[in-house]
Design brief:
Helix content: 55-70%
Structural class: mainly alpha
Number of strands: 0
Order of helices and strands: HHHHH
Oligomer: single chain
Largest sheet: none
Number of domains: 1
Number of helices: 5
Shape: globular
Strand content: under 5%
Distance between the termini: 20 Å
Radius of gyration: 12 Å
Length: 84
């Protein structure tokens, strides 16, 4: 993932930990919370299909995530169906 995108998603961990050292549950939740940022990066060709699959796999393997809205759960479940 591009450094700029990581800064948008993990803004509060920038100076403390690398992305790999962020607890898995927090990382998964952050991906879900910032999915519009990820989607826009994909639309702008800043991410490719393999990047999206890796993110969705990370969410799936390290969840469960907390959904603030019913739609978020629907979107993530459909992402898993679509990409895997």
């Amino acid at each position: 993932m591009f450094n700029l995108l990581e800064k948008k998603i993990f803004w509060d961990y920038q100076n403390l930990l690398s992305i790999k050292d962020i607890p898995l549950s927090i990382r998964s939740q952050r991906y879900v919370d910032f999915w519009p940022v990820i989607h826009n990066a994909y639309k702008k060709n800043e991410l490719n299909i393999e990047d999206i699959k890796a993110i969705v796999k990370d969410i799936y393997q390290n969840g469960p995530t907390n959904y603030c809205e019913n739609i978020r759960e629907f979107v993530i479940k459909n992402l898993i169906k679509r990409w895997f």
